[in-house]
Amino acid sequence: MLEIFEYEFMQRAFLAGMIIATLASISGTFVVLRRYSMISETLAHSALVGVAVGLVAGFNPLWMAVIIAILSAWLIEYLRYSFSLYSDAVLAIFLSGSLAIAVIIVSLGGAFNNSLFSYLFGSILAVSDADLITIFIFGIVCLSVLLIFAKEFYFIAYDEEVAKTSGIRVRLLSFLLVTIVAIIIALSIRVVGSLLIGALMVIPTVSALQYRQGFAKTLFISLFFAIFSVASGMTLSFYMSLPSGATIVLSILVIFIISLVANKR
After folding, report:
1. Which domains are delineated in the chain?
2. Distances in Å between the alpha carbon of 20 and those of 27, 137, 255?
3. pTM for this entry
């Protein structure tokens, strides 16, 4: 097992994976409770547009992914609040539209290569020292915001209308939450991939909810599941020469199935 950590790229990958697992599971708890799970997949596709722009224009793909994901998150919330559109309809439009735009940009720019493939499905080798520093800095900021406003985020997820009558600035906090989610997703695509990050954000929380515990315990169970899945997925990926992102997601799915069967009533 310790042989993995003899390689610097695995050390970087494990550090990045643990940070991403922590952020994804905590933010995912609020997203799932709010019945807004598909926003993770939608913003992942939006982040892919940023990656495509970065690869074609010669900018840093990770930074472009963060910027485009945040702008998309704000636009989604604006449309949802200003035009009273159904959440699932807005997310479906952005999900398919973002993927189409990304494919067109890459095709026109001739950048459909291994670099884009690593962003689609994740790659252990893709995590550089600069990426790790970026993930760490943004991770600290995102985690701090999630913990500071945890009570408000939970209240909004539980009942948005009651939260409004209680004086909570629901719209502002909703924009803040989707901003945090957008940043986490954009940072995650190096490790898990844009097509798979939604699983890391949603499935650990759904698995934890099967145990029917309170909010705090559910959050910690979800965190444990996410960290365990990333660790086991990366270990299997290393020894069996499998894609890291897909192996992590399969590990989460196994945990979900076990949780579902173990808590069947």
Report:
1. 9-194 (1.10.3470.10)
2. 11, 12, 18
3. 0.89
